[in-house]
């Protein structure tokens, strides 16, 4: 995350950080962010990020990335927000996950309309175009 933040800042972009107190106390927070929000918990962190975001993009990552991706996608499924969610599938990193999600959809565990809420692309320009053009289907699990 620090490398991405540095790259964005180097070209004059805006970077807003959100970090829980417990992690901020153990790590050195990025000193040159445009803004830094410190929250009381990880859940508050995710809620704050959701409030601040226009869209969500998962880059290759580990358990935290997957957990955040699935939670924000679940919030879409439940109708808590209608913002686009995307996976940037760099060098096929997420191919296995995408195959699993497609198989889960085919098996009836994920509704096709909910699967379609997730934008997946390996081309960043195409992904950004799809995010910009995204229209929420208006389908949620609760209604």
Explain this structure to me?
By secondary structure, the protein is of the alpha/beta class. It has helices at residues 2-10, 21-26, 42-52, 63-77, 95-106, 112-115, 124-133; strands at 16-20, 35-39, 56-58, 85-88, 118-121. It has 2 domains: 1-52, no CATH class; 55-143, Rossmann fold (3-Layer(aba) Sandwich), CATH 3.40.50.450. It has 7 helices and 5 strands, in the order H-E-H-E-H-E-H-E-H-H-E-H. The strands form 2 sheets. The chain has a 3-stranded parallel β-sheet with strand order 3-4-5, sandwiched between helices. The mean pLDDT is 92.
**Radius of gyration over alpha carbons?**
16 Å
The end-to-end span amounts to 36 Å
- The CATH class of the largest domain is identified as Alpha Beta
Number of helices: 7
Average pLDDT figure: 92
The CATH topology label of the largest domain is Rossmann fold
The largest sheet, given as strand count, sense and whether it forms a barrel, is: 3 strands, parallel
Q: How much of the residues is beta strand, in percent?
A: 5-15%
What portion of residues is helical? 40-55%
Note the main attributes of this structure:
single chain, 143 residues, alpha/beta, Rossmann fold, three-stranded parallel beta sheet, two-stranded parallel ribbon, 5 strands, 15% strand, globular
């Amino acid at each position: 995350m620090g490398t991405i933040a540095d790259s964005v800042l180097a070209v004059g972009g805006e970077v807003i950080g959100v970090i829980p107190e417990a992690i901020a106390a153990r790590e050195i927070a990025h000193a040159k962010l445009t803004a830094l929000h410190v929250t009381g918990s990880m859940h508050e962190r995710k809620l704050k990020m959701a409030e601040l975001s226009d869209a969500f993009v998962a880059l290759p990552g580990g358990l935290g990335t997957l957990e955040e991706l699935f939670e924000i996608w679940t919030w879409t499924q439940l109708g808590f927000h209608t913002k686009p969610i995307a996976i940037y599938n760099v060098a096929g990193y997420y191919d296995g996950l995408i195959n699993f999600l497609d198989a889960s959809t085919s098996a009836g565990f994920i509704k096709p309309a909910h699967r379609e809420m997730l934008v997946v692309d390996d081309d960043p320009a195409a992904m950004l175009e799809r995010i910009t053009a995204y229209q929420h289907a208006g389908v949620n699990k609760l209604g």
